[in-house]
Amino acid sequence: MVLSTAVFTIGVFGFLSRKNIIIILMSIELMLNAVNINLISLSHYLQDMRGQILAFFVIAVAAAEAAIGLAIIIALFRNKATAHVDEIHEMKG
Amino acid sequence: MINELFFAYFAFAIVLLSILVITRRNPIHSVLWMLLLFFHIASLYLFLNAEFIAALQVIVYAGGILVLFLFAVLLVNIREEIRIGRYISAWSSGLTFAVGLFVVILMAIKSFVAAPPGMYSIDYIKKETHIKALGKLLYTDFLYPFEIASVILLVAIIGAIVLAKRRLKG
Q: Measured between alpha carbons, how far is B27 from B29 in angstroms, rounded to an integer?
């Protein structure tokens, strides 16, 4: 669990402080992976299958989230030609 | 003894690789380190008797998600990316927040109390095989969430196409 916490906080740091939006999405994946490690290790130690079922759903949702996030990035890149979050400051399309 | 050694190696490698992922200047290097990270996590799952999830990790993450990321990275101007700074100007507040969160979660872990063990012991899973036990549970008790997951994936497919397609003329 300490391992999972470490990976999660590294993900939080990357999420909060990187400039490139693709790296920010990768940090989200890192955090989801940390949660998965925690779920599966607990499912192993408590001898219960439900943790693995939840990890299964987390993986499915992570795949969906990555697809949507990258589609948004591509749409953004077509309009603004930048992938840096500090250069994107308008929401009106 | 050998178990602890394996776990120590994987824990160390996973932490190191995840730091490498978020600190590399070149996004392609980041993606490749992340590939190695996913393989390490999959081996950790194997180590925790979750072979189906390990296979899923390799197929979905390493095979699917990382290819998507690599594709998106290729859109970015790598030369400019290497030249300019990696972090936003307020990165120190991000670091402070992350370290604070780490300490808080570590303090919370101390009060962890293990629940009584469930019915899926290692012997039971050996008798039943892992995928069969997982599938039985997934298609009986967790059928409703399973259907919701399929709807989420469908929405993701349609949403990704709608967002990424070129705007129609007129």
A: 5
